[in-house]
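Researcher: Please predict.
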Amino acid sequence: MEQSRGKIGIREYVAMVILVVGVKLSDDTPTIFVDFLKNALWMAPILIGLISILPIYLTMKVITAYKNKNLHDVILHLFGKYIGTFLSCILVLASFIGLIFDSAIYVDIIKTMYFTETPILFIYLVFMTVCAYCAKKGLQHIGSVSWLVLFYIKFSLLTALILSFKESSTAFIFPIFGPGIKEVFTKSSTHASIFVEFFLWG
């Protein structure tokens, strides 16, 4: 059966979202949490997930109620032309700023680990060129590749987790709330943007 151009299945969609959200947990996000939450770091993803479930669910319900409309169209319908356009511009600006910070983090990781003598500007240009090329190939190609590599990435992470158990100790999780209940809940709620892709891709 011939698929419509630009369409992807639910498994490709889920794979893309998992990978996009997953990379945020492998950059400097854990480092940020460690500075504030100490040994209660492991609680942050759980609390962030619980905090994000309801907004994500409501967003998906609203989007599904408007067939053949994207997020911008829904915002315009709900808030009007002027307020809706303003809110959409805020979303685009926030996403653009997030993209700049995220790409800078990954470029810094690439430079530190692999190309220590290469100018960071050159690495950034190559990085963005590759990203633009992949984006130009279309949503179907990105979705297919995401689905193909998802198993191998998750398997390697699971293997690393199992091997890390040899050096771990359950005593490190105590006290459970680390620096305090207030600090744990505050940092978890203010970093719920880890799952912002669920809103933007809804």
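Model: The mean pLDDT is 78.
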